[in-house]
Amino acid sequence: MSVIFIERGEIDVLDGAFVVLDVSGVRTHVPVGGVACIMLEPGTRVSHRAAALAARVGTLLVWVGEAGVRLYSSGQPGGARADRLLYQARLALDEALRLKVVRKMYAVRFGEEPPARRSVDQLRGIEGARVRRTYQLLAKQYGVSWTGRDYDAEDWDSADLPNRCLSAATACLYGVTEAAVLAAGYAPAVGFIHTGKPLSFVYDMADIYKFETVVPIAFKVAASNPAGNPERAVRLACRDIFRQTKLLDRIIPDIEDILSAGEIPRPEAPVDAVGPALPNPESLGDAGHRA
């Protein structure tokens, strides 16, 4: 399983297992060793033992706002490795190397080589224009009224339905991507296209998969105008598409391939630096689905 959301529950460890207790005392088992990322929404309490167990098995805990619209804090399973952090920083700080990485990101995302002799800022502008057009095309495809990407993180309910669905969908994608970045030993904050944010590199990588996974889902759910909780419908659909596309299996190899575009030696893993591996979603069986 890639990512799950938990709200209004107390998370603890009972008999060695990761469990969630709701207000009525109902106990729900969560296969924490087979979950890459757990999103903790308001009303959730986490015991020290639960946090320690999540860190030990390599599951990322992320504290988010209601419906996942804001990210407040996150744990770090294993953490960035010094050798890979220095490698990533060297690529990001050298403008020539950074441009090579950005051009590779562009090529992977759009399936074509970017225009020659363009700076990072120029490529960012070209990318932004393509993204806006893609939003418009998908909105038209699904019959959704679309006036542009617009939402207020401080006032969730003020956004229209398509923007709320998009925010919930991208929150799921960012959680999975951050878990992969951390598991690979890199720093979420050291980005190439995005800069100056705690999750800049997460945004860089997540954008590669956004329009093939979560954005169509968000528009599809918005078009159906579900009653009750559309954000939950988005999350369930995102869970399914992550499994179908085997997204977790793709992100870390893609990170290595993209950074290799800088054409500098990549650090080799020291023999004592074996950290927690990302879970294999196929190994969870029915238990993973029920959770």
Main sheet attributes: strand count, strand direction, barrel closure = 4 strands, mixed
Sum up the overall morphology in one term.
Answer: globular
Estimate percent helicity.
Answer: 40-55%
Spatial strand order of the main sheet: 1-5-7-8
CATH architecture of the largest domain: Up-down Bundle
N- to C-terminal distance: 9 Å
- Under CATH at level 1, the class of the largest domain stands as Mainly Alpha
Description:
The structure is a single chain. By secondary structure, the protein is α/β, with parallel strands linked by helices. The protein has 2 domains: 3-74, Ribosomal Protein L15, Chain: K, domain 2; 82-280, Four Helix Bundle (Hemerythrin (Met), subunit A) (Up-down Bundle), CATH 1.20.120. It has helices at residues 48-57, 82-93, 95-110, 120-142, 161-183, 200-210, 214-224, 230-245, 247-259, 285-290; strands at 3-6, 10-14, 17-21, 27-29, 37-40, 45-46, 60-64, 71-74. The strands form 2 sheets. The protein has a 4-stranded mixed beta sheet with strand order 1-5-7-8. Strands 4-3-2-6 form a 4-stranded mixed beta sheet, covered by helices on one side. Strand 3 (17-21) and strand 4 (27-29) form a beta hairpin. Helix 2 packs across helix 3 (95-110), helix 5 (161-183) packs antiparallel against helix 7 and helix 7 packs antiparallel against helix 8 (230-245). The chain is globular, with a radius of gyration of 19 Å. The model is unreliable at 271-291 (pLDDT under 50).
